[in-house]
Design goal:
Length: about 160
């Protein structure tokens, strides 16, 4: 059952990313390195204000949807209400999401798809190196140790 729930959670993650770029990769420019953003602004594809506004909107929607989904999976679907068990579930889901993002989203989808190449920026690296991705994922692995406690606290309070 947990495998199915993890797959659903990663599917929700993927749908959120796909939704964020429904108008094309330019809508997700905030995912790109600063150099690519600067080039896109320089050639007139967008403005810094637009990038920042879209980032704020997406990140707010993303965190709300992913948090609510996780709380519902842990508390409602699994009937977990104690902090310790909720913490372990939250940690598992957040760590799987973290590595799923780095490996499947970044390394497979973004690196291998022409969709993410912006016109006028084809010559610029727009994905992290494997080393950068691993460093980021290891850092986020530590962050999610704290994030899981927040999720577990919410689950314990609600359920």
């Amino acid at each position: 059952m947990v495998i199915l729930q993890l797959l659903i959670y990663c599917l929700v993650f993927t749908l959120m990313v796909r939704f964020s770029v429904r108008g094309g990769a330019i809508d997700g420019l905030y995912f790109y390195p600063k150099a690519v953003q600067d080039r896109a602004i320089e050639i007139g594809l967008t403005t810094r204000e637009t990038i920042n506004r879209k980032r704020k909107i997406f990140m707010t929607e993303f965190y709300i949807v992913m948090l609510v989904t996780l709380v519902l999976i842990i508390g409602l679907w699994n009937h977990i209400s104690d902090f310790k068990t909720a913490y372990l579930y939250a940690l598992l889901f957040l760590e799987v999401m973290n590595w799923y993002d780095g490996i499947v989203i970044d390394e497979v989808w973004v690196r291998c798809s022409k969709f993410w190449v912006l016109p006028g920026c084809e010559d610029m690296p727009y994905v992290q190196t494997i080393r950068q991705m691993l460093k980021k994922r290891l850092f986020l692995t530590l962050i999610w140790v704290i994030g899981a406690a927040i999720v577990a606290g919410i689950v314990a309070m609600i359920f």
